[in-house]
Automatic annotation (TrEMBL), chain A:
UniProtKB keywords: 4Fe-4S, Gluconeogenesis, Iron, Iron-sulfur, Lyase, Metal-binding
Pathway involvement of the protein, from the record: Carbohydrate biosynthesis; gluconeogenesis
Domain named ACT: residues: 151-226
Names of required cofactors: [4Fe-4S] cluster
Gene3D superfamilies according to UniProt: 3.30.70.260, D-3-phosphoglycerate dehydrogenase, domain 3
PANTHER family xref list: L-SERINE DEHYDRATASE (PTHR30182), L-SERINE DEHYDRATASE, BETA CHAIN-RELATED (PTHR30182:SF12)
Organism from which the protein derives: Thermoanaerobacterium butyriciformans
Family: Belongs to the iron-sulfur dependent L-serine dehydratase family.
InterPro entries on file: ACT-like_dom_sf, ACT_dom, ASB_dom_sf, Fe-S_L-Ser, Fe-S_L-Ser_bsu, Ser_deHydtase_bsu
Name assigned to this protein: L-serine deaminase
Reaction it catalyzes: L-serine = pyruvate + NH4(+)
Length: 228, 292
């Protein structure tokens, strides 16, 4: 028996555009999370599809769902099947490539987003079934989070005191931390912190956190599970 | 406390509080989320609205699936019903046509409720909405029955899986059929025990069903399996309501489904490498799809 607590609406739901919770709804969620990491100002997006995503994406509308997510649409948005037109209207160019490399999970996509100033955001994630997703990489750094919670992501320099300052801001806003993880490549190099909370994290929080010396960027990703 | 991890515990709660399964499940949700009853009921009503719209669309429109393998069959079957020309009779045919309608809407990138999955999304609306209409049940009763379904689904999710990739089609359409059968029993005034008997029969009948989608798409054989899952739910509910008992209790049936799922080779679990997907014709379709 697994210990997960299921809401009635995990079983009867989600409401979604078909045909597949993993290949369509999950893909839209991955796209939307990538958009929130990259910011609104998107110009060009490349999708590198792996394994099952690569072999069946057209028949599952995975491509349309990924683009819909990039535009900020949810998996139940009626406009999802028309996402290519909508992207064109917003002058966002999209392209798809298939990778023959092995991914750890069959439904995996790398999303490379360029904004109008030329900045690049590179995100890798997998759709793991039932519309649930896992984000595995941000800009070359290994991470792991699901987007089920309100998520705060910071990019910062790995040095003493940063984490304390971030949690101090969260405490000031009375935000309870459910989970927290820090990832870094090398000691003293760039690091990423992922903080998950049950509560909605207001934009003021990320603005305050970005003011901390040593923090380069703070992003809030809204929960994909807006069950109620 | 309304927590339950098994069919046994769910039945205990219905006895302890003297309430139907649906009511235990509504209380469970309230306890777990802290949300008011009204919010919970309205959220389920939103699901019902999406299910209804999908049926209407599928019976009326000429649907073409994204993969091009299916579409328009719900409408064609419905025309036969109207002309009084079906072998299995009006009730079964209408439920089946409605289930196919939802599956076709799903396959054409229309809006559905994953119940419990997108691939099996036709069974519960097809069975429940059709039977509720036939017997003049109110929307309140219909919404209640969706909670009964969810209760059965929660037990399966906790003790096995609802995913075809993990347990084969038995875990998707089999579960949907069990969820629908239990709900039909409550909708028709049966007892919680009878609901679990119906759910047990439904899974027994579909035990071992593999997930072998042609070209990896949610089209063939998913649509016709939604049809059989629906008809199966109707039959199993009738059997339970007439007093037939499952000698293997529901929890044992779920553990059987779980072990069968684990024994099943990966080729038969949504990978499109076995079964119908791996026939000469299936492979041809798969090749057509990967050349683009």
């Amino acid at each position: 028996m697994n210990l997960r607590e299921y809401s009635v609406f995990d079983i009867m739901g989600p409401i979604m555009v078909g045909p597949s919770s993993s290949h369509t709804a999950g893909a839209a969620r991955l796209g939307k999370i990538a958009r929130q990491i990259a910011g609104d100002d998107i110009k060009d997006v490349q999708f590198m599809l792996y394994d099952s995503f690569a072999s069946t994406y057209k028949g599952h509308g995975t491509d349309k769902a990924l683009v819909a997510g990039i535009l900020g649409l949810d998996p139940d948005d009626d406009r999802l099947p028309r996402s290519f037109e909508l992207a064109k209207e917003q002058n966002i160019s999209v392209s798809f490539m298939k990778s023959d490399k092995d991914a750890q999970h069959p439904n995996t996509v790398r999303i490379i987003i360029k904004n109008t100033s030329g900045d690049v955001t590179d995100v890798l994630g997998s759709s793991i079934g039932g519309g649930n997703v896992v984000l595995k990489e941000i800009n070359g750094m290994n991470v792991e989070f699901t987007g089920e919670y309100e998520t705060l992501i910071t990019e910062h320099i790995d040095k003493p005191g940063i984490i304390a300052m971030v949690t101090k801001v969260l405490a000031e806003y009375k935000i309870n931390i459910a989970f927290m993880r820090v990832y870094r490549q090398l000691k003293g190099d760039n690091a990423i912190m992922v903080i998950e909370s049950d509560q909605v994290i207001p934009e003021d929080v990320s603005i305050s956190i970005e003011r901390i010396n040593g923090i380069e960027k703070a992003i809030v990703i809204n929960s994909i599970k807006n069950t109620y | 406390m309304y927590q339950f991890n098994s069919g046994f515990e769910l039945l205990e709660l219905t006895r302890k509080y003297n309430m139907p399964i649906s009511e235990v499940v509504i209380n469970y949700e309230h306890e777990m989320t802290g949300n008011d009853r009204e919010i919970i009921i309205n959220k389920m009503k939103a699901n019902l609205d999406v299910m209804r719209k999908a049926i209407e669309k599928g019976l009326k429109d000429d649907i073409k699936s994204v993969g091009g393998f299916i579409g328009g069959d719900a409408k064609r079957l419905y025309d036969k019903i109207i002309n009084n020309f079906t072998i299995s009779g009006e009730t079964v045919s209408k439920a089946v046509a409605s289930a196919i309608a939802v599956s076709e809407v799903n396959a054409s990138m229309g809006k559905i409720v994953a119940a419990p999955t997108a691939g099996s999304s036709g069974v519960i609306p097809g069975a429940l909405i059709t039977i509720a209409r036939k017997f003049g049940k109110s929307d309140d009763e219909l919404i209640r029955s969706l909670f009964t379904s969810s209760g059965i689904g929660i037990i399966i999710a906790k003790n096995s899986t609802l995913s075809g990739a993990e347990g084969g089609c038995q875990a998707e359409v089999g579960s949907a059929s069990a969820m629908a059968a239990a709900a039909l029993v409550e909708l028709m005034g049966g007892s919680p025990d009878e609901s679990l008997n119906a759910a047990s029969f439904a899974i027994m009948n579909l035990l071992g069903l593999v997930c072998d989608p042609v070209a990896g798409l949610v089209e063939v054989p998913c649509v016709t399996r939604n049809a059989i899952g629906t008809a199966n739910a109707l039959i199993c509910a009738d059997l339970a309501l007439s007093g037939m008992k499952s000698i293997i209790p529901f929890d044992d049936v779920i553990s059987a489904m779980d072990s069968v799922g684990k024994m099943m080779p990966c080729a038969l679990k949504e990978t499109a490498e076995g079964g119908l997907a791996n026939t000469t014709t299936g492979i041809k379709f798969k090749m057509n799809f990967s050349e683009d």
